[in-house]
UniProtKB/TrEMBL annotation:
It comes from the Eukaryota. It comes from Neurospora tetrasperma (strain FGSC 2508 / ATCC MYA-4615 / P0657). This is PPM-type phosphatase domain-containing protein. GO terms for molecular function: [pyruvate dehydrogenase (acetyl-transferring)]-phosphatase activity. Residues 24-49, 61-80, 502-528 are annotated as: Disordered. Pfam families: PP2C. Residues 32-45, 514-526 have a biased composition (Polar residues). One of its GO terms (cellular component) is mitochondrion. Residues 194-584 form the PPM-type phosphatase domain. InterPro entries: PP2C (IPR015655), PPM-type-like_dom_sf (IPR036457), PPM-type_phosphatase-like_dom (IPR001932).
Amino acid sequence: MRRAAVKALRTSYQCTCRGLRVSSRGSPLPLLQSSKAASSGSPTAHYNPRLGTATARYLSSTGARDSSGTHHHSNARPEPLRSSMYVRGAFVTLLSGLVAYGAWYNSGDSNSESPIASTTSATTTATGAVPTRSVLVIGADELHTGTFVGDGPISKTTSDNERVVEMLSPEQATRKLRQYEQSVYVNRGQGVVRYDVAQLPSNDPIEDDHAEKIVEVPNKAPSSDPSDWMFWGVFDGHSGWTTSAKLRQALISFVARELNETYKSSPDLIPSAAAVESAIKTGFTRLDDEIVHQSVQRVLKSNNRLVAAEHLAPALSGSCALLSFYDSKSKLLRVACTGDSRAVLGRRSESGKWTATALSTDQTGSNPDEAARLRKLHPGEEHVVRHGRVLGGLEPTRAFGDASYKWSRELSEKLREKFFGRSVSPLLKTPPYVTAEPVVTTTKIEPEKGDFVVMATDGLWEMLTNEEVVGLVGKWIESQAGSSSKSSGYFSFLQKGSKTALPVESSESEKNSGNKTPIRQRQWGATGTDPMERFVVQDKNVATHLVRNALGGKNQEQVSALLTLPSPFSRRYRDDLTVQVIFFGYDGPKTGEIVVNKEATAAALAAAAADGNKTGPVKPKL
């Protein structure tokens, strides 16, 4: 039992909170729990007649280890994504405190562990007209929440060197969730009707990135209509944003060039499945060779530190990549995965519910197949996989960049001495240990059944299971059917469903798929909770809908708290999030156009797309 006192400032009111220490191996408390259910740690508070009695709730943040490496994003050279939270000048009255213990976070060593609090909150209602504001107080290893009364400024730091930030209101939290959302109608009659994208940064700047492109392909017969190649990619960067930005700029082009040569050289423009898979893999590995090896040649030839800074940055940072390629003529979807981002197919079954099928497998040191592959490639190296990480450091076993796992020790030290670089692992003996070659799966899409695919970086899968994600999209679709929204025309074949459960079937094969389980559920105590008590439908953009429910759904206090935490503190609780949802089908107009869906796109991004603003988001590409 740990006792923490929160001192009152400029008032005689005091509130003492007693927090529960939660073992990282024990069962977490429910995220928000009444004081009765946690009587062993109930808070005590001095009563102030003017302000009323204080009540308390408990927040558990039991430990989840940080995922591999860090993760970054940008457009080629982006403006850093600044936190929308802010802190003000000196203290006003702190009326209540929240203390927490138990979440794991990364500090230098990727395997180091440090506890963050199991939380207790006391809130007091003011009877006068004095405004009250909720705040977060962030310490080195503790997180508090409380209420300030008054309209004065809030200090940036306390005397205990704790940082104070004002809590986002529900309206501010929604604005932040929707800040980078995009939605596009694909009115081409080629089997795709719409795709939605949402991003939420945790790092500053965000290390994730994404790309979408549609390529019109002429058929061999002049009288035949052209078909479409459609690409969607999410890129989960770590140790910087530069590698993921490079993938956004170049990966689809590299893969499309290889596919073009493969299709042209095949009889009747119909290559074999093996040839298509090989072309995708070649596009991946050629781009990584340019990032990791050709860049070194240019740097050594130039012997210039500015050139080195430009070309070595994408090599020294790293990124996972998940790329989908849909051929509208064959209706085949190829998913190429390098790293631990994930794609999941949602398909409606005869029961009317949806089924969830993983189209990729997380490639980490904790995956037995990946660990066995590395041990086979590096025989006799006991620590080639250590604590689920490559050489004990990098969690993904496949990635772009991460040159310190691919260069020889001599080259790494030469570049570091002459220009700059990363320290070489003492365990490095026979590089390369990490490859960018993807694992490719092929799936026959059934647009007439309304198939959809969710692609997301691992930040989403840390919070939700495959079935929950598919069920949440299914629930969102049901909310669109019969609504007055323009989207209802694209989902007219679906009926409104049950209001009591997620419309998804349970699958034993998914539970044993080898993919990571949502560690944040254990951290926040969300396991075993009735889904309809956790989840909510209130966003026009389905990707934003998934992000909201990953953060807490109906629990608005939790959603606001997680969105209020500024970088780098937010990384203890959530990763960068990038989500794409692709809807297949033939509903909607067939004008041949690609149109921004303004009601599900952030206003600034919609305006930038309409104006062709080069500093804004790229317009839907054809």
